[in-house]
Amino acid sequence: MIRFSGKKAFGVLVITIGVAGIFTSHAIAQSAGGGTTTSAAATFERLNRNYHIGFDRPESWGLKYFASTSLLSGLQPPPSTEVRRVGAITLGLEMGWVPALDDGQQKIGFNGNAPQDLNHAPILVRPVVRVALPWKLTAVAAAPVPFRVFGVNPHLLAFGLERPIVERPQWTFGWRGYGQVGSVKGVFVCPASVLAFAPGTPGNPTRCVGESSDIATLRYAGMEFQFAYKIPSMPKLVPHVAVGGNFIDGAIQLHAPVVAGMDNTREWTRGGTFSGTVGASYLVTPRAAFTVDAFYTPLWVNRTPNAPRTNDGLFNVRALLSYTFR
């Protein structure tokens, strides 16, 4: 049995009160000094967030808009009139129009409250390679050059696998699966145009104090079905249509110098879209073809938290010049 004397109990009480007083004094000193430690931690957490945003938010709309400009859809060159051989390589150059966004469409930051600089590249140009495989399969790969052009530096790789499902003398019904990995680096959140305004003003709501270096991740996976028809009276002209479904996985990583420090917030989103193309190919020679497509995908968005959900889709025109080597 443990016994406490009065003196021991008094001593323990004095020590306890002293230790508590030390911690209390330290806490009061921190509070009097503005809570430096707590404030710094809160600021760090605020500038280094990594969180999911809804697929209909304005930031998500921007990510799926530009991911859609690079979808590996449509632009199906017609089959050569020569015998198809395994190992045949088709080289192509794809050019796609990227429509400019108006001021309202560029206002996607802070859930639709801050403008961003999104009008960089007016066109997407990328080489396309096709390789004929066994079982009538064809592997496809496309990527823009990884150099800084129009103020952005793309590191994107799109790839796919396609095959005719039903072939008849006058028409073909086919399938393609495709995906893309990579990102685009540029000045999106804090462009030079906002630095002329004081931080926190309507012209600079993001409180930028220098140009940012942001990274937009544009990943997707999808598949589409294609139908092509050879016009008997014009055998070199082959109209076609395609419809597809896509799963887009996008993110924006900020590297923005703001008043509170370096904002390294990361926002990511995921969701599905569908798309369609209609166009035609023309066989210039048995090995060379020129293809033009009109592309459209509906893109739903809530421009502000209380605004109704609306469709602000992407419509553009794409072209492909291709040549098959034997």
The CATH class designation is Mainly Beta
Give the strand order, joined by hyphens, for the main sheet: 2-5-6-7-8-9-10-13-14-17
Low-confidence segments, given as residue ranges, are 1-38
Please give the largest β-sheet.
Answer: 10 strands, antiparallel, barrel
Topology at a glance:
Blueprint: H1 6-32, H2 36-47, E1 50-52, H3 58-69, E2 89-97, H4 103-106, E3 107-108, H5 109-112, E4 114-115, E5 123-132, E6 138-142, E7 152-167, E8 171-186, E9 214-229, E10 237-253, E11 256-258, E12 261-263, E13 266-283, E14 288-297, E15 300-301, E16 310-311, E17 314-325
Parallel strand pairs: 1-13
Antiparallel strand pairs: 2-5, 2-17, 5-6, 6-7, 7-8, 8-9, 9-10, 10-13, 11-12, 13-14, 14-17, 15-16
Question: What this model shows, in words?
Answer:
The chain has about 325 residues and is an alpha+beta fold. The protein has one domain (about 50-325): Lipocalin (Beta Barrel). The protein has five helices and 17 strands. It has helices spanning about 5-30, 35-45, 60-70, 105, 110, and strands at about 50, 90-95, 105-110, 115, 125-130, 140, 150-165, 170-185, 215-230, 235-255, 255-260, 260-265, 265-285, 290-295, 300, 310, 315-325. It has a ten-stranded antiparallel β-barrel with strand order 2-5-6-7-8-9-10-13-14-17. A hairpin with a 2-residue loop joins strand 11 (about 255-260) and strand 12. It is elongated and about 65 Å long.
